């Protein structure tokens, strides 16, 4: 029985998943495959490295810094979020809170990171072979929100946020051999997304990356279809969906510490709901 976990990200709403993943770590829960989209890639990297509460500190402390995100970054570097600060300055072996790369590397969990090729608007699935010590470029590519961030280049190819190409990669998990999947959403599962905001922002990139702009406009509908599909798989017992009943006022780039902490706690509490699906005794280690 191969079990996968998917974290779809969602900017700072990703702290909900951070709470779930910490609950899993506390109960020795492991997975055979992890797929991270956008902020979900960072969440699952820390989970794979078994660094309990690391993500919590990034969301509630580091994100408050002007170096992390802000208009100064946008004006100076054309990126509201400084992805190099997040995934290099802070996360490298010499950084303030290094990612334990050897632990991630040695964890038998396969790890995929979804990014979107800005030239084609199609998803690219990076794996562990694309990650090495102090080289976390795939997380930067996966988290580069169009217009908010400049595209991130890897080997000369520009990439945007993975949510444009495959926002809820349940089908990818099954194609990778999973029999069952835990899916973490950062919005209530019955949320129907619309593309009004995405369409406005897409105009800012369509002159240079028209295919990525088109994918940006279609992201909401693709997300809605993908969640509907996940619900059908849930009826078959193949998917378990974890989603907040309320986002506690947290949005993609909002930075209210109290709201973030409340959403983290909601995730930590909700994490236990997946234990029966996974065959785990909440009072002891995973079976």
Task: Provide a descriptive summary of the structure in words.
The chain has 287 residues and is α/β, with parallel strands linked by helices. The protein is 39% helix and 14% strand. The protein has helices at residues 15-26, 39-48, 54-60, 71-77, 83-89, 101-106, 137-142, 170-175, 196-202, 210-235, 257-271, 275-278; strands at 3-7, 33-37, 110-117, 123-126, 152-154, 157-161, 180-184, 239-242. Strands 1, 2, 3, 4, 5, 6, 7 and 8 form an 8-stranded mixed beta sheet that branches. Strand 1, helix 1 (15-26) and strand 2 (33-37) form a beta-alpha-beta unit. The chain is globular and about 50 Å long. The two termini are 13 Å apart.
What is the strand and helix layout of this fold?
Blueprint: E1 3-7, H1 15-26, E2 33-37, H2 39-48, H3 54-60, H4 71-77, H5 83-89, H6 101-106, E3 110-117, E4 123-126, H7 137-142, E5 152-154, E6 157-161, H8 170-175, E7 180-184, H9 196-202, H10 210-235, E8 239-242, H11 257-271, H12 275-278
Parallel strand pairs: 1-2, 1-7, 2-3, 7-8
Antiparallel strand pairs: 3-4, 3-6, 5-6
